[in-house]
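User: Hey, quick favor. My workstation is busy. Could you predict this chain's structure for me?
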Amino acid sequence: MSGINENIYLNKLNQRLNDIANEFKGLCGVCIYDPDTKWYFGINDDMTFPTASSIKIPILIKLLSDADKKLINLSDEIVITEKMKSRGSGIIHKMTGSVKMTIENLAILMINLSDNTATNLCIDIANQKEINEMLSSYDFGTMKLNRKMQDYQAINEGKENIATPKEMNLILQMLDNKSLFNESVSNKTLDILAINKSTPISQPLPENIKVAGKTGGMPGVRCETAIVYLKNRRYILTVMTSYGGQSEIPQNFLNGEYNGSDIISKISSETYKYFNTIDNSSEFGQGLTQTINY
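Assistant: No problem, here it is.
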C-alpha cells in the first residue's frame, strides 16, 4: 500500500522536472528509479548522448570483474612513464618523472579524480573490445566505449563514447540489486563510486548524504549518474545533456541556460526534496521527524 501512495506522490515530481528540462536551451535526458517501489521516470531516456567520463563506470566494472575472476591482480604495480601520460582531467600527468601505482589505485583515480591517464591504462588492462562485449552481453544496445580519453583523432573521426540515460541508470540498478554482477564486484564498485567528491548531483544535497556515482563533462556536454542514499531508502538518478553551448556565450551560459552542470544540480535538488519527504513520512504521508503529544 505504501508503495502505491508514494508513487502517486512522486508523480507530482514529473511536472517540475519537465519544466526544468524545457527551460534548458540544450538537450536533456533524465532517468530516475526507486528500487523500493519500482517507480520510474524518464525524459528523453532512450535518446543517445555522449557519456564523457561517466563511461568510466563500465570500465571499472570490467576491471573489478576481471580481478574477481583472478584474471588480473589489483595489487600489481604499473610504472607510468612520461610517454604514457594523458592530458586533461586528473593528476598523474602533473607528476614529474615516472610514477609507480597499483591497478586498484589507478581505478580509484579514474573515478574519484576522473584521471585520464589512469583511465586509459585501465582500458588497456581491462581491454576495450572485452568491455564492449560485456556491455553487449548485458543487452546494452547503445552504450559503447568507442575511444580512449583525449584521443583527438578518434574524436575528429566521429568516434564517441555513448549511452542513453536509461542505460546509465540501469547499470547502477544492476550494481544495486546484484542482479548480474556478483555481490563482491557490485559492492567494491559502489564503494569506489562513493568515495567523496563534489559533483552536480551531490552539491545541492546535505553533506551527510552518501552519493555513489560518476560525473562527466566535455564542451557542450555534462552528465552524471548516481545512487543517492537517504536514511531509509535510496534512488538512482541519471541526467545527460548535450548542445550545452560554449563558455564564449557569456551571459546565457553564466545564467545557466546552457549550463549542463546547472540543470543537473536543479534536477538533483528537486528529486531529493521529494524522496527526502517520503523518507521522513509514514505510509500515509505523516511526517516522522517530530513526535507531538497532546
